[in-house]
Design goal:
heterodimer; A: about 300 residues; alpha/beta; eight-stranded parallel β-sheet; 13 helices; about 10% strand; B: about 190 residues; Rossmann fold; three-stranded mixed β-sheet; about 25% helix
Chain lengths: ~300, ~190
């Protein structure tokens, strides 16, 4: 086969990669050892970080892309895909992650934003996942080239309520497009500040054109199954695993919960004897300046 | 359709288009359903995750029994890894051994190296647009395995008796020729 026949970084490859993650759990890890635990528990991918969101919250200061050494160690420790976070708008962090061989970049509100503009994701060979609280935000990110959307939730809290709110919002808004004519769709596009063609596509598909995951506050098998029953394609778990009493057991139980999300008997079984979940904090008690989900637009 | 994880809905969609009402695609998430199926599809996803779930649910034994009794199997990407006999340098995935093949995982590299290509396929009159995503490949085959397509040294499509395996994703494009080939083996008229 001729080498010039090959095409890299197409929209199909980016969105296709995200589709392979469906029905799976993507886990935050900070060391190669944690990455191995995640892989053994059945994670479909790991997110390489220098600290989990709960610790980023506590530490304060500027949160940046993880040290390339940690990312490389994690890439070498597992065979499943490795994702990593870049600051909103920090396209050079994203370039570095791509150069390191990361499989997907999370342009994440958990890190301190670098720009009022998000990264132009069409310029990259590897795919991006971005957070969203509502349909307008999801479609703006898709227009910029995101191959996967996740709810923002409120990261590092262990409080699933914000992820629920965002998932219900996005799916509810899509449902409300059903049966609308061209003019009505144009009005919606203007109101939610989104590209009209993408709104029309959503109305027709009755879902986002890319994979839609849950993230931000998932801490237990029941939380993960809740997000799946609400309509998530899969689940990100950040602090919920390695801030729990028994990470191995929790990681494995959350994977089982996602695979059996509509089977309460099995959910009851996998939820037994896991030790304490992360302590967490009520998202509604967070002072305004410390809320992560309002970063980005 | 083994529906434990991965791009199941894309496979269901492609198969239903190929079936044109001549049957239906059933999603299998627990044991007890495989014995009633006329054909089995192992979709793309993460082979480590899928391998674990196949063992946990007991579906792995059902697939082995069905394949041994001649039920046609279509395996794509992670599926190709799972149906193999030997996986190079990996103890995390337990292959089902439905085909006499040795597999390399992520042979072409990470997502950055994922690619699309027009593939020459044995028996096809025009190339097939193939989508390779962190793809595995067959590095060596036993005597009974018929090689259908190659990328460089590596085999990316092959058949042995009732099992057809592809390193790429026919369910992500509109071209249904491989799905049709599978349905011909199933005997859908």
């Amino acid at each position: 086969m001729e080498l010039e026949n090959l095409r890299f970084g197409t929209e199909l490859l980016k969105r296709g990669f995200a589709k392979m993650q469906k029905g799976g759990v993507i886990m935050d890890v900070t060391t190669p050892e944690q990455a191995v635990i995640a892989e053994e528990a059945g994670a479909v991918a790991v997110m390489a970080l220098h600290a989990v969101p709960a610790d980023i919250r506590k530490m304060g200061g500027v949160a940046r892309m993880a040290d390339p050494v940690i990312i490389e160690e994690i890439i070498n420790a597992v065979t499943i895909p490795v994702m990593a976070k870049a600051r909103i708008g920090h396209f050079v962090e994203a370039q570095i992650l791509e150069a390191l061989g990361v499989d997907m970049v999370d342009e994440s509100e958990v890190l301190t934003p670098a720009d009022q503009f998000h990264i132009d994701k069409t310029k990259f060979t590897i795919p991006f996942v971005c957070g969203a609280r509502n349909l307008g935000e999801a479609l703006r990110r898709i227009a910029e080239g995101a191959a996967m959307i996740r709810t923002k939730g409120e990261a590092g809290t262990g409080d699933v309520s914000q992820a629920v709110l965002h998932m219900r919002m996005i799916l509810g808004q899509i449902k409300s497009l059903k049966g609308m004519d061209e003019q009505q769709l144009m009005k919606v596009a203007r109101d939610i500040e989104a590209n009209c063609d993408l709104v029309t596509e959503c109305a027709r598909l009755q879902r986002l054109s890319v994979v839609n995951f849950a993230a931000g506050g998932v801490a237990t098998p029941a939380d993960a199954a809740l997000m799946m029953q609400l309509g998530a394609d899969g689940v990100f778990v950040g602090s919920g695993i390695f801030k729990s009493e028994n990470p191995q057991a929790m990681a494995s139980a959350i994977v089982q919960a996602v695979h059996n999300f509509d089977n309460p008997q099995l959910l009851a079984q996998v939820s037994k004897g896991l030790g304490a979940a992360m302590k967490g904090m009520d998202a509604s008690t967070i002072p305004e300046g410390e809320i992560l989900q309002s970063r980005g637009w | 359709m083994i529906a434990l994880q991965g791009d199941v809905s894309e496979h269901v969609g492609a198969m239903e288009r190929a079936l044109c009402g001549r049957g239906s695609a059933v999603q299998v998430r627990r044991a007890g359903i495989v014995p009633d199926c006329n054909g089995l599809v192992l979709p793309g996803g993460e082979s480590t995750t899928l391998s674990r779930q196949l063992a946990t649910t007991g579906i792995d034994q059902e697939i082995k029994r069905a394949a041994a009794s001649g039920v046609p199997v279509l395996a794509t990407c992670a599926g190709l890894v799972l149906v193999s006999r030997i996986i190079q340098g990996d103890t995390k995935v337990h292959p089902l051994g439905l085909m006499d093949t040795t597999i390399g995982r992520n042979v072409f590299g990470s997502q950055r190296e994922s690619f699309e290509s027009d593939l020459e396929v044995e028996g096809f009159d025009r190339p097939f647009r193939a989508v390779f995503i962190r793809a595995p490949a067959i590095v060596s085959v036993g005597k009974g395995v018929q090689v259908l397509a190659r990328v460089g040294e590596n085999t990316v499509a092959a058949r042995e008796k009732n099992v057809l395996c592809l390193a790429f994703h026919p369910e992500l494009t509109e071209d249904l020729r491989f799905h049709q080939m599978f349905l011909d083996t199933v005997g859908v008229k």
